[in-house]
Each structure stands twice: as C-alpha cells, then as structure tokens.
Amino acid sequence: MKAPLWILTLVMVFLSQRVGFAQFSPGGITGGGNVVLRHKPDTMRMQIDITGQGTTLKDALDVLKTRRQAALKRLGELGAAKESIHAGDAKVAPPDPRQRQIQMMARQRMMAGGKRGKKAEPATPPLVVTTTLTAEWPVKAADADELLLLVGTLQAKIRKSDLGGNSEATKLSPEEQELMEESETTNFDYGGEEQAKPGDPRFVFVKKISADEQAEALARAFKQAKEEAAKLAKAADLDLGALKYLQSTTSTSEQVQQYAAMYGYSRYGRGMMAADPNLGDPRNEAIGPQSEEVTYTVTVSASFEAK
Question: Which is deepest, 73, 192, 257, 304, by most CB within 10 Å?
Fold first, then answer.
C-alpha cells in the first residue's frame, strides 16, 4: 500500500531541515547533500586600485603609468610572488565619493537659497583613470598565533607603502572643504552602504583544492544525496529507480560574499579577486576574509525514478 500524498509532504518538510535534503515530485525523488571542506589558508591575495588624475586623459594616463611602475616595483620588494603580480588595463574611474558628496551638498545648499546669500559651486573634478593590481603572498606558519602575526605585519607594510596613492588624493578648495566638513557634521549619507576607499588594499585568504579532494567531496555529497532520497522513498513505501538527473555546485565562504558586497566588489561573485585568469580558477579555491580558516562547499542534487 502506497502512502498518501499528505504523508509524503510532511516527510519532505521534515527532511528539508537536515544538512541533506529530499523531495518527491511526480517526476521522481530528489535528494541533496553538502560537504564542507575546512582548511588553513596558505596564500594571502591582495587587490588594489591604482589611480592617476589630470586635467586631460593623457595627463591622467601618464600619472597612472608612473604610479603603476612604482607599485609593481614595491610589491616585489614586499615579497609578493613574482608570478602573481598583475596589473589590469587602464579605464576611466567612477567619480570620487568625496566629489559626489560635495556636489550633492552644493545642490542642496543651492536649492535652499544658498548659505549667507552665496551659491557654493564646486570646482570641476579632475579626470581620473584607474587600473586594478593583484598580488599574492605565501602565509604558511607553525600555529595560529604565528600566522596572525605574519599576516598583521605584512598587511601593515602593504598599507604603509601607499600603493594606491592615497597620500596624493585630490586636494579640496576652501569652498569644497567647507562643504565636506558640513556634510560630516550633519552625517550626510550620499550612498548608503559602507564602501572601500579608493586606493585601499583589499585582502582575502586562499587555499587551493586539489582534484583528488574535489572528487572525494563529490562522492561523499552524492552518497548523502542518494541516502536522503532513499529515506524519503522508504517513508513513502517506494524504491529508488534509475538515476535521472545529477547536478553539483561549489561555493566558498558566505563571509566573502558579504565582504564583496560591502566593499562594492560583488561583480567578482564567489571567485572574488580570482576573476582574472592569471590568478587561477576560482572554482578550485577555498576563499575567506580571515586567516584562521577558509571553507569550500560541494553540493550535489540527484534525482531518481520512483518505483
């Protein structure tokens, strides 16, 4: 005697709360499994935007070229792996957040009739071009304390080097400085979420996942998926038939996704800072924002005939 549909629905809801999941449909019985690989990272990856500015595009490109050459040389001195150092193509940069904020404050003041009868008109911002620089450092250590010290010291040296040229940021006119101070006093918000400052380095930690480890994780995840499907079939007094559908996906730390979104780099997806082919295939990497641990999740969904 086959179980009624309402029993199958209850069983499906219960099993969906587990690490593995299973569901029944007229087309078959589907089960899912997850395997999470946890590792200590062995690589620190940095990404930074190098900018150049000028009154003309040629001037801005000349500044960028000089700054990029200096940054590449400095990365070598800081011990970055030579084969990992890479600079992308130059492109026109989006407006400086400070300039956007000043312009919005100026428009608000003008709409309100000006301050002390004057209409503040910010100067035309310079033309800015940018390129993205990437580099990697090995971060192997004997224990967690040694790793933390190694990473902290290295990041401090990188920030102190000012690879992005923050010390040469666009100078504000007296009128613009007044608007900036006013916006800070009134907690003016021009964009919502916190964003990384242009020229600031961004770091993630990486561990390559070998082909053998991926294969083992896939096998374990498929076993989980089949077991979950079999449990649901048994509860419904059914047996599993032939495999009809099979799919696998991989993902890395959810914290990396949050980090990417917070700092405006969601375009990198799960392979943040590994979108460039020079850095390898992000599908084969465990990535995380902290040096303590990185994770790599393998998910398998398998559908079987019901008989």
Answer: 304
Domain boundaries, the chain: 5-40+207-306, 47-138+165-198
The residues, any chain, with a CB within 8 Å of residue 110's CB and separated by 6 or more, are 119, 120
Cα gap 134→72, rounded to integer Å: 10
How wide is the angle at C-alpha 45 spanned by C-alphas 48 and 72, nearest 5°? 50
Amino acid letter at 63?
V
- Both tokens assigned to 89: 């193509």
pLDDT digits over 26-75, tens only? 568 999 999 999 999 999 999 998 888 888 999 999 999 999 999 999 99
What are the angstrom distances between the C-alpha of 188 and each of 100, 161, 173, 253, 263?
12, 31, 19, 33, 19
Give, in order, the Cα–Cα distances in Å from 286 to each of 20, 201, 250. 21, 20, 10
CATH code of the domain occupying 47-138+165-198: 3.30.70
The strand pair at 28-39 and 43-54 is best described as unpaired
